[in-house]
Amino acid sequence: MNTIKGFRFSTVEAAIKKAGRKDLALIFSEVPATAVAVFTTSTVKAAPVLVSQKHITSGSAQVLVVNSGNANACTGEPGMAAARETVHLVAKGLGISDTAVQVCSTGVIGVQMPMDRVRAAFPAVITGLSSGTLEDVALAIMTTDTFPKLAAKTEQVGGIRYTVAGIAKGAGMIMPNMATMLSFIITDAAVEPGFLDSSFRQAVDRSFNAITVDGDTSTNDTCLLMANGMAGNPRITGGSPEGNSFESALNDVLLSLAKQIVKDGEGATKFVEIRVSGAKNDADAKRAALAIANSSLVKTAFFGQDANWGRIFAAVGYSGAEVDQSLLSLHFDEVCMARNGICAGDDAEERGTAVLKQKEFTVTVDLGIGNSTATVYTSDLTHEYVSINADYRS
Asked: Which of 90, 137, 143, 215 allows an S-S link to 25, with CB 3.0 to 4.6 Å?
């Protein structure tokens, strides 16, 4: 992972759910950073989300504290007290304001946070800030993930190099408008706050809000970006070549992380890009793409390598998008499965089945009505997904 100036990291074992792994982490900026964040759109929000939403209104943050093993969601006032105490322990240990702390949790919903173990771990996580790496934090936040998710991109402004780097976790409860997903993006670039905010939200829409594994949205979703300016570059603003380069780097990092989440979808064996074109408007294109990507019948057909293209047209039909079935066409990669709403030929299914045997492929649906497009990334739905979620709490 590229060096990001002015950021330090720490991870420790607090045994929040069980012993044997590091599960409490810090990402610390040596100076206050410009910060923006988006959170779950669920009306049932975890205590750390509620606390962080309040703190982020300042437009600044200096440290993130995050734990795995316990979501601290649906835990009532004791959960809020635990989130606030966690924030205060970090702030006191670092000599900063409580409002400069962002707090995140991931894990089982409805279980109270074991604050005795969290308190006991804080001296070590504070003193360990000189020894950790961003990769360590990526490992500490994993739950049902099978691998840590990291991405980075380096650019230049006026001959000065800066880095945009990020980590994410998530494998199940993944659905646009955030998911059971945490993602933390850091950069040592100096960026104008308004431009940082707009670029970040646009990048989130193109990445984390364009993935779905199982159609479930969680209580804890958080995506946070901190820019501390310690690269020493001239401040990046919108409408400039430097701004375009920054946006490109940010988009690349977030999209890489989002795709890694889908590829690590619980039990997944396929990574599928769903493209919808020819829609009346952008909203219709996204509706149709999501309907396909979230259809259990479509996703099980992907798993079974069954070129049942009728299920895809059925999903488009109930999506709410404006559709004329006589104009629909469908491709699996370059193989035309259907044209003008009907089968493209006797050998289409055989050639389509060959595509579905690949680990990665693209499904393209043209609605034939307008010029709007959308892309969504999804996985298949497997026996293993059921097994993982049948005993997740054990």
From this structure: 137
